[in-house]
Predict the 3D structure of the following.
Amino acid sequence: MFAQNIHIANELEELALLLEIDGANFFKVRAYKDAARIIRSFESPISSVVQLENIRGIGTGIKGVVDSILNKQEPEELALLRQKIPQGILEIARLPGFGPKSLKTLWENNITDLETLEKLARDRKMRELPGFGPKTELKFLADLELFKGHKDLYLGGEAERVANSIKEKLLEFNDVGRVEITGELRRFEPLVSQIELVVERKNDFDEKKLFESLGITEKAKKHYLPSGHLIKLHFTDSKNFATVLFQTTGPKEFVEIFDKLDSQKEEKEHFALHNFQYIPPEIRHHEKAKQYLKEPFPELVELSDIFGDLHMHSLYSDGVVSIEEMALAAERLGYEYIAITDHSQSLTIANGLTPERLKEQIREIEELNNKLNIQIYTGTEVDILKDGTLDFPSELLSKLDWVIASIHSNFHLTKTEMTDRIIKTMENPHVKAIGHLSGRILGRRRGYELDWDLVLETAKRTNTALELNATPDRLDVTEELLSAVLSKGVKIVINTDAHSPEGLNNMIWGVMTARRALVTKDAVINAMPLEGFKDWLGK
Ligand SMILES: [Zn+2]
Ligand SMILES: [Zn+2]
C-alpha cells in the first residue's frame, strides 16, 4: 500500500459513498467501490493514469477522476457532492451499522454530525427515527465508545506499507543516510497512533522542502501524509542513529532499564554493553521482556518457519485473481503448500460457491496440482450457520482436504449461543480449523464473547486448530488469548485470508502477533514442512 494509492482509494470510496447516499445508480456506485479496492492493492505507486490502462474494472470515467486527484484537483463530481452532503454524515458513516439508507434518513432529519446523533441516542430519541429502533440505538452507543477510543489510531499493517514507501522516498535524497521505521510500528502494535521514522541527516537540509516533496502537510503543529497518517520524523546524525532508534522504539519502561546510552554503531551493542541478551522490538512490551534480558527465552516462531498459507480466496468467490495466480504468488514466497478456501453458498454477498461450483473447483485444483510445484489443497471457508450447523453437507466436506469454518453472520447472539455454535462446529470431524476466531474487527467491531475454557477444551479434544488471522484489521486470536491457547496445548494456524496475491504478504503481521505473545514454532501447524503437515492432516 502506497501513500498516494491509499489517498486515491480513499477519495474514490468517499465518492462511492456520497453517490450512494445521494441515491445514484447501483452499478455506478459499485464501479467506484471496485476501483477503490483495485487501487488500494495496486502493486506499484500510481503517478499517472497511463498505469491504469487495460485494467479490468477501471473505465474512462474513473480514470478521469483519478487524473484530477493526481493533478491535485478535486474531482468535479466529488466537489459537488461534498457541497451537497454535510461532512458530518461521512464521520457517522465510519461507524458500523450505518448504510446509505440510514445515513440518508439522518440527513433528511437534519442530523448531520456525530455529536447531535449521540445526544439524540442518549435522550433515547434516536429510536424514533424511521427505520431505527431501541436495539440500533443501544448498539450505536456501544459502538461509539469503541470508535472514540480508536478514532485517532491507524491499522499497523496499513501504516507499515505507507511507512515503507516513505522510507524509500527518503532514501532517494542525497543528504539522507539510513532510514528506519521506529516506535509502535517497529514493535508491530496492531493499532498505532502515528508513523515514526528515524532519519540520518548527512548534511544540513531544508526540512520544509523535504516535507513538501513527500506531500506532508501541517495541521496544529502535527504532520500528516497524503494517506491521512500522522507522521513523525526523528532526524539524527550517523553517530547517534542506533541510540535514537533504540530510544524511539520504546516502550518507555523497557528503555529505562538501560541506565546509560552512549552513541553506538548498532542497537545490539547497547544490549551487549549491559551484558543483556538482545530482545527483538516486538516483545519489548511483554511483561517477561525484562526477565529475558538475563535468561534464555523460547525460540519464537519466525516468518521463515512458515511453509504454507491455509486461508485464501480466488475468483471463484470474492478474491481478485485465479487459483493459479494465487498458487504462483505463494510459491514465490517460498511456500510448499496452500489451501484455497473460497466462501460457501450462503455468503451470497461474497459470491459463495454452490456445491456444483465447489466440485468444479476441486477438479481445477487437481489439474493444477499436476502442473505446479506447490501443493494446493482443496478447501472451503464454510459458514457456520445460526444454529451451529454448516453451510455444506458433510458428504461434500468429506471430499475436501482442508475445511476452515467461520462465523460471518448473527453476531448478536448470546455468549452461550455463540459458544454452542463454535463447539458444535468443532465436533464436526471434517472441520480442521476455526477461522478468524473472535470476529473482532479492529476499531469497528468487538469480538463476540465466548466461554473460552469450553472452547479451548473442545479444540484440544477434537484437534481443531484456531486461526490467527493476519489481516491487519483482524489479528485475532489476540495476544491475551494466545497465552491461554498455548497453555492448553491447542494448535494455532496463522493465515492471511488473502483476496489477492499482495494480501499474502500480511503473513508477517500474523507471525509478529504470535511472537508478541511468545508463541513457539511447535504450536503453529503451518510452520510444519509439507511432510509434517500431511501427517497432521492425515492426507
Ligand atoms: Zn471469513
Ligand atoms: Zn476468508
Observations:
- The domain at 154-292 is CATH 3.30.460.10 (Beta Polymerase; domain 2).
- The radius of gyration is 25 Å.
- The chain has 23 helices and 14 strands.
